[in-house]
Amino acid sequence: MSNPVGETFPRQLRLTRANEFRQVFQNNFRQSDASITILVGIQAGLNPRLGFAIAKKQIPKAVQRNRLKRIFRESFRKNQDRLPDRDVVIMVRRSILNIEVTLLNASLEKHWNSVIKQCEKS
């Protein structure tokens, strides 16, 4: 049972090294709301890539952090064809634990649309 093209999340779509994260943290524009901040790197790459900076201080339980990462990955995977070829880092605040999954997905969709518009301008 193989995945259709475009519906996977291979390693080349992930930020894996500290210097990749550092580059996004140093040169970015951001989209944020009450519970999510999305940092988008200025430099264009070959593909859109996703990374997480979810602090234990904000989300103390590993189960909760992993659940959020699964939700973020799925949303990114569904939208990766539309997204610009930039590195993206998602950070969260504690208030995200009070949001239902449907509202969280709607919020992510809104953020992805804003990122696309912002990248078209620059």
Characterization of the model:
There is one protein chain. The protein is an alpha+beta fold and 122 residues long. It has one domain: Ribosomal Protein S5, domain 2. The chain has helices at residues 18-26, 62-79, 101-121, and strands spanning 28-32, 36-44, 49-53, 86-92. It has a 4-stranded mixed sheet with strand order 1-2-4-3, sandwiched between helices. β1 and β2 (36-44) form a beta hairpin. α2 (62-79) crosses α3.
Helix/strand layout:
Elements: H1 18-26, E1 28-32, E2 36-44, E3 49-53, H2 62-79, E4 86-92, H3 101-121
Parallel strand pairs: 3-4
Antiparallel strand pairs: 1-2, 2-4
Helix pairs in contact: 2-3
Mean pLDDT score: 89
The proportion of strand residues reads 15-25%
How many discrete structural domains?
1
Shape: globular
Instruction: Give the total of beta strands.
Output: 4
Largest sheet: 4 strands, mixed
Give the uncertain stretches in residue-range form: none
CATH class: Alpha Beta
Structural class based on helices, strands and sheet pairing: alpha+beta
Distinctive features:
122 residues, Ribosomal Protein S5, domain 2, alpha+beta, four-stranded mixed sheet, single chain
Question: What would a concise description of this structure say?
Answer:
With 122 residues, this protein is α+β, with helices and mostly antiparallel strands. It has one domain (11-121): Ribosomal Protein S5, domain 2, CATH 3.30.230.10.
